[in-house]
Amino acid sequence: MIEIDDLTMDYGSLRALDGLTLNIPQGEFFAFLGPNGAGKTTAIKLLTGLMRPVRGSVKLCGYDVQKEPLKAKAVLGYVPDVAVFYEKLTALEFMRFIADIFEMDEAQAEERGADLFKKFHLDHYAHQRIENLSHGTRQRLAITSALLHEPKVFVIDEPMVGLDPIHARVVKQELKERSRAGMTILMSTHLLNIAEELADRIGILHKGKLIALGTMQELQSMRASNGKRLEELFLEMVSGDSD
Ligand SMILES: Nc1ncnc2c1ncn2[C@@H]1O[C@H](COP(=O)(O)OP(=O)(O)OP(=O)(O)O)[C@@H](O)[C@H]1O
């Protein structure tokens, strides 16, 4: 469902992503785990077609994001780390705008939108301008608007940022359910516990390289080349001791 081949990105002389190759099958909940600056957002921007790699390719449901961008984007739901809205629109107007972009049937869009607003506790904010919404409410609106067209592939950058525990649970439950129903999910997180709780498989990114890949159980039992357990190594990376 997500096929990433030799994906590489440079910012000037910095190699931010180095030869990432990865296949994420349909219905898998996959997490990129890595400390700040590891290359997670760079990988996500490349695989959603927002940036062009210096090398490599990405296919979503068989569509190359560079060669067939419209087809690839039609199957994709994407929630960036900082969502961008038309601030003067109300939450409901924004949902209708998204439905138009995806050329959705109006009645179906209204029905799905109403269902999502209920699930994500957004009813109360439907007629409020987005510029007046709190960070957590905006994050929930970003997620609902990305789910509206029922994408086959869902990519979300740091999903829990800004959410209180109640809404974090709502988001986790919804994503888990959709993944079980066949949606392929790729999320990025720097939080080990979020990856552990949600992901079927985890890829650890460090300094632009995929240094480990497997289920949480597999990662915990693996040892890095220096003999350290990966969990221990990851915690060191996050605390900045790994250089
Ligand atoms: N537009 C840019 N120009 C130059 N360097 C960049 C740019 N975007 C990211 N970088 C650098 O590329 C590297 C990878 O950044 P990236 O944002 O992909 O990491 P990340 O894993 O998402 O980090 P975080 O958890 O902090 O969001 C970092 O060293 C970052 O400083």
Short account of what is shown:
By secondary structure, the protein is an alpha/beta fold. 37% of the residues lie in helices and 25% in strands.
Write the layout of secondary structure elements.
Layout: E1 2-11, E2 14-24, E3 29-33, H1 40-47, E4 55-60, E5 63-64, H2 69-74, E6 76-79, H3 91-101, H4 106-119, H5 135-147, E7 153-157, H6 165-180, E8 184-189, H7 192-198, E9 201-206, E10 209-214, H8 216-221, H9 230-239
Parallel strand pairs: 3-8, 3-9, 6-7, 7-8
Antiparallel strand pairs: 1-2, 1-4, 4-5, 9-10
Helix pairs in contact: 3-4, 3-5
The structure holds adenosine-5'-triphosphate.
Adenosine-5'-triphosphate binds at residues 11, 14, 16, 34, 36-42, 190.
Protein name: ABC-2 type transport system ATP-binding protein
Keywords: ATP-binding, Nucleotide-binding, Transport
Domain ABC transporter: 2-232
Structural commentary:
InterPro entries: AAA+_ATPase, ABC_transporter-like_ATP-bd, ABC_Transporter_VariousFunc, P-loop_NTPase. Keywords: ATP-binding, Nucleotide-binding, Transport. With 243 residues, the protein is an alpha/beta fold. It folds into 2 domains: 162 residues, P-loop containing nucleotide triphosphate hydrolases (Rossmann fold, 3-Layer(aba) Sandwich); 66 residues, no CATH class. It is 37% helix and 25% strand. It has 9 helices and 10 strands. The strands form 2 sheets. Strands 6-7-8-3-9-10 form a 6-stranded mixed beta sheet, with helices on both faces. A 4-stranded antiparallel beta sheet has the order 2-1-4-5. A hairpin with a 2-residue loop joins strand 4 and strand 5. The longest helix has 16 residues. The radius of gyration is 18 Å and the shape is globular. The two termini are 35 Å apart. The model has no long low-confidence stretch (mean pLDDT 92). The structure holds adenosine-5'-triphosphate.
